[in-house]
C-alpha cells in the first residue's frame, strides 16, 4: 500500500509557495499543504503577528482512509481547506503573546470576530491504490494532481471575494442554519418526552447512544422506553403508563373541573359530577386519554423529532457549488 510520502510525491511541489507535512500513516494516508493568501482582492485581512508579518495561511489536507479501500482498490479521496495560523502550525498548541512571532491578543480577538472564508470539503475524487491514479467520481476521468490543489484553493479564495463570494456564503449560512438550529426543536421534544412522559433511550454509552443524544441519528421507536414503567389496570385494561402521566392527568382533570366550576356556573357541581354519574363515560375517557396522551403522543413527538434529524442530516450533507 502506498505511504503518505509516496502519495504526496504524486502532487507537483512548488518549493517557493507551499509547505507540506506528510501524515503518519496511522490508518489515513495523505498530507497537508499551506498556501499564502494573495495580498489584494480579499474580503478579509489575514491575521498578522507582532512583527507585522502575515500569520494566516490556507491549510489544505488531501487524504484517504485505508479501511475505505474497496475490493477494486478504489477509495474516496477527500480534499479539505480552511484558514490556519502559521504560528500554531509550527508545533505550538497556543499563542504566546510575549513571543514576537505570535499574533497579539488584540489581533486574535479581531480575527475571531472578522468574516473569514469558510472551510470547504471536496469529495468528488476517487483514488486507485493499485495504479496510483486519481479519478473524477462523476465520469471516472483521470485528474491532474496539480489541478486538485489549485481548484480548491481558487474556490476557497472565491468565497472570500466581497461580491463574487456572497451567493456562496448566503447558501452556506442557509445550509448551516437548517443543519443546526432545527435540532433545538429536537432537544425540546426530547426534554418533554423525558420529563412529561418518562420516555428515554437505554444509557449504554455506545456510539449509537451518543449519536442519538447528539441528534445525529434518528432514535428507533423500539428503543424508546418508559424509565419508570407502570402497568396500571384501568377498569380491567392494562396499559403501560408512567407515573408522570398519572400526575399530569390528575392535574389536568382537577384544573378542568375548577375551570368548569368557576367559569360555567350552570355546572354548579363541576365536571367531576358528570364523570362520577356515568361510570362508562369515565372509563372510556380515561382509557382513551391514556392511550393518546401516554402512548401515542410520545411516539408522535419522536416521529417529528426523527424527521427533523433526517432533514438536518440531508442539509448537512448537501453539497453547495461555489
Distance between the termini: 34 Å
Mean pLDDT: 79
Radius of gyration: 30 Å
Strand order across the largest sheet: 1-2-3-4-5-6
The residue fraction in helices comes out at 40-55%
Strand content: 15-25%
**Assembly classification:** single chain
How are the secondary structure elements laid out?
Blueprint: H1 4-9, E1 18-22, E2 28-35, E3 56-65, E4 74-85, H2 86-89, H3 105-113, E5 120-128, E6 133-136, H4 145-159, H5 166-180, H6 183-195, E7 199-200, H7 207-213, E8 225-226, E9 229-234, E10 237-242, H8 243-263, H9 270-277, H10 279-317
Antiparallel strand pairs: 1-2, 2-3, 3-4, 4-5, 5-6, 7-8, 9-10
Helix pairs in contact: 5-10, 6-10
Structure description:
The structure is a single chain. This protein is of the alpha+beta class and 322 residues long. The protein is built from 10 helices and 10 strands. The protein has helices at residues 4-9, 86-89, 105-113, 145-159, 166-180, 183-195, 207-213, 243-263, 270-277, 279-317; strands at residues 18-22, 28-35, 56-65, 74-85, 120-128, 133-136, 199-200, 225-226, 229-234, 237-242. The strands form 3 sheets. The protein has a 6-stranded antiparallel sheet with strand order 1-2-3-4-5-6. A two-stranded antiparallel sheet has the order 7-8. A two-stranded antiparallel ribbon has the order 9-10. The longest helix has 39 residues, at 279-317. It is elongated and about 85 Å long. The two termini are 34 Å apart. The model has no long low-confidence stretch (mean pLDDT 79).
Amino acid at each position: 500500500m502506498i505511504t503518505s510520502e509516496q502519495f504526496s510525491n504524486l502532487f507537483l511541489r512548488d518549493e517557493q509557495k507551499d509547505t507540506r507535512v506528510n501524515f503518519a500513516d496511522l490508518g489515513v494516508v495523505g498530507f497537508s499543504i499551506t498556501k499564502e493568501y494573495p495580498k489584494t482582492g480579499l474580503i478579509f485581512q489575514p491575521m498578522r503577528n507582532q512583527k507585522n508579518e502575515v500569520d494566516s495561511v490556507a491549510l489544505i489536507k488531501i487524504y484517504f482512509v485505508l479501511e475505505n479501500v474497496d475490493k477494486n482498490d478504489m477509495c474516496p479521496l477527500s480534499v479539505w481547506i480552511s484558514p490556519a495560523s502559521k504560528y500554531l502550525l509550527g508545533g505550538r498548541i497556543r499563542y504566546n503573546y510575549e513571543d514576537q512571532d505570535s499574533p497579539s491578543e488584540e489581533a486574535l480577538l479581531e480575527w475571531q470576530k472578522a468574516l473569514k472564508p469558510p472551510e470547504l470539503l471536496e469529495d468528488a475524487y476517487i483514488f486507485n491504490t493499485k495504479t496510483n491514479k486519481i479519478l473524477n467520481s462523476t465520469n471516472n476521468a483521470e485528474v491532474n494532481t496539480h489541478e486538485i490543489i489549485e481548484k480548491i484553493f481558487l474556490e476557497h479564495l472565491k468565497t472570500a471575494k466581497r461580491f463574487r463570494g456572497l451567493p456562496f456564503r448566503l447558501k452556506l449560512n442557509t445550509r448551516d442554519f437548517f443543519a443546526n438550529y432545527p435540532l433545538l426543536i429536537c432537544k425540546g421534544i426530547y426534554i418533554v418526552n423525558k420529563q412529561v412522559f418518562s420516555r428515554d433511550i437505554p444509557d449504554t454509552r455506545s456510539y449509537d447512544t451518543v449519536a442519538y443524544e447528539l441528534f445525529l441519528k434518528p432514535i428507533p421507536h423500539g428503543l424508546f422506553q418508559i424509565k419508570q414503567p407502570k402497568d396500571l389496570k384501568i377498569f380491567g385494561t392494562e396499559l403501560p403508563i408512567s407515573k408522570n402521566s398519572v400526575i399530569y392527568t390528575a392535574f389536568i382533570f382537577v384544573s378542568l373541573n375548577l375551570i368548569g366550576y368557576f367559569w360555567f356556573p350552570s355546572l354548579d357541581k363541576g365536571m367531576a359530577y358528570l364523570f362520577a354519574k356515568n361510570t362508562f363515560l369515565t372509563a372510556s375517557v380515561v382509557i382513551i386519554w391514556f392511550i393518546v396522551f401516554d402512548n401515542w403522543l410520545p411516539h408522535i413527538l419522536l416521529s417529528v423529532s426523527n424527521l427533523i434529524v433526517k432533514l438536518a442530516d440531508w442539509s448537512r450533507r448537501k453539497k453547495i457549488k461555489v
